[in-house]
Each structure stands twice: as structure tokens, then as C-alpha cells.
Amino acid sequence: MGATVCEAVEGADDMELVGRVDPELGTALGEVLGVADVLVDFTTPETATANAREALAAGVHCVVGTTGFDSDELRAAAEAAADGARCFAAPNFAIGAVLLMQFARQAAAQMPDCEIVELHHETKLDAPSGTAKRTAELIEAAGGNVHEPIHSIRLPGLVAHQEVVFGGEGQTLTIRHDSIDRSSFMPGVLLAVRRVGELSEPLTVGLEQLL
Description:
Largest sheet: 5 strands, mixed
Shape: globular
Mean pLDDT: 94
Low-confidence stretches: none
Distance between the termini: 22 Å
Helix content: 25-40%
Strand content: 15-25%
Number of strands: 9
Radius of gyration: 18 Å
Structural class: alpha/beta
Order of helices and strands: HEHEHEHEHEEEEHE
Number of helices: 6
């Protein structure tokens, strides 16, 4: 994801890539904060909050795509940020995935009984995914009932996929989204980079807030 984001930023006419940070390559976050306007974080649950805290304290906006960490810690980091620094986080930056969540919320009001299945590549660190957990929250807020724990599948050949299966008397409804390439996330990432500095709250969650 980091490499794909760098390619997307380099291909955008209104952006300049000023640094890449990868501990395995010996680069540190502090080396680029002095020249960056926005930090984009696709790292690990163990490091994302610390990265955001350091950037926000330096007055650098943050776009966080990492999932699996305590969201309360990220909110605390955002609220303690330097004046004007904003943080945006999303469990999924694909437009289709955001639409799936919205459609599932609508469906839950009429067909409340459902289950969620999410499928990702074998190296994804968290299970269930942030997208699946966010979908379950939206369904339950709409009066839905997610019957079983979220089903997580991790296999080679997958990228990011999710389906919500609703069941009613004599019928089922399946809503599914498939990201078959990481490029599917890039329009959402670039939108967040462009808009994060305009946000009114210290922390904004969910790409639907920008669409």
C-alpha cells in the first residue's frame, strides 16, 4: 500500500512526494516532518498511533489507512495536535466499499438479520478487518442484527473483498464489493490528502464524510 500511495501522489499534478518512511530501509519519520504538509500512514497497528501523534504534534496533517489499533488513542492524539493539524482515518478508501457500507445500512432497516464475510490477502495483520467492523457498527446502528462473529478469510490471491448476506422470509440479499487491485484505494486516498486540512474536527472517520 505504501508503494502504491507513493506512485499515486507522484502521478497527481497538485501534489509533491517529499519523503518515504520505512524503518526496514533505515528511514525515520522525523526526517520528513519538517517538509511535509500531510503524512499518509499505511503501517501496522503497533506503530500507526505513534506516527500520527508525532506528525500531528509537528503540525502535519495525517491520513491514516492502518486498521486494527485502538481508535480512542488516535482521537487523543488528534485532540492534542498542534493548532490546525487535522487527522482523517478510514477503514477503507475504495469508493465501492464505502457504498457497500451505506447500502448495508439501508438494507438493515428492512432485513435486519445478516452475516458478514471478509476476505483478504494472507499478509493482512488484523482480523476481522476494519471495514468489516465498521460495517457491523453501521448495521447495528440501523437496527440490524449481525448473527455471528465476522467471518475472516486470509488466502493468497486475494486483495480485499467483503460481502454482507441478509436473510428474510423466503429470500436472501447479498451485497458484495471486491478490490482486485490496490489502485482501487488511491482515488479515496488522494481525496483525503486534498481535504484533510479543511476539516473542522481534530479527527474525522470514514470516507463517506468526504463524498
